[in-house]
Specification:
This protein is an all-alpha fold. Helices cover 58% and strands 0% of the residues. It has two domains: 36 residues, no CATH class; 37 residues.
């Protein structure tokens, strides 16, 4: 049998809501021990880091386009035609 040398303690605090979320996720697994579940998540869990700069840029451009479309729609509704002089 393999002997593990775990001599370093790690502790952290959570809110009541966070604790409930952790307990619910643990209940979805077959891991009965909270310690074993948290260790498994810390070692094998995945963290997804999304790079949203390009998404934010697309959203900005989409807002600009929608603003232009709204201005055109307002003009057409006011005048009855889509042609105007500069």
């Amino acid at each position: 049998m393999q002997t593990l040398n775990r001599n370093v303690a790690m502790t952290f605090r959570v809110s009541e809501q966070e604790r409930e979320m952790i307990r619910r996720r643990q209940a979805q697994t077959n891991i009965r021990s909270l310690r074993a579940y948290l260790l498994k998540q810390a070692v094998d869990g995945r963290v997804i880091n999304l790079e949203l700069a390009s998404v934010n840029e697309c959203a900005k451009l989409l807002r600009n386009v929608s603003s232009n479309i709204n201005q055109i729609a307002k003009r057409v509704n006011e005048t009855g035609n889509a042609h105007w002089s500069a």
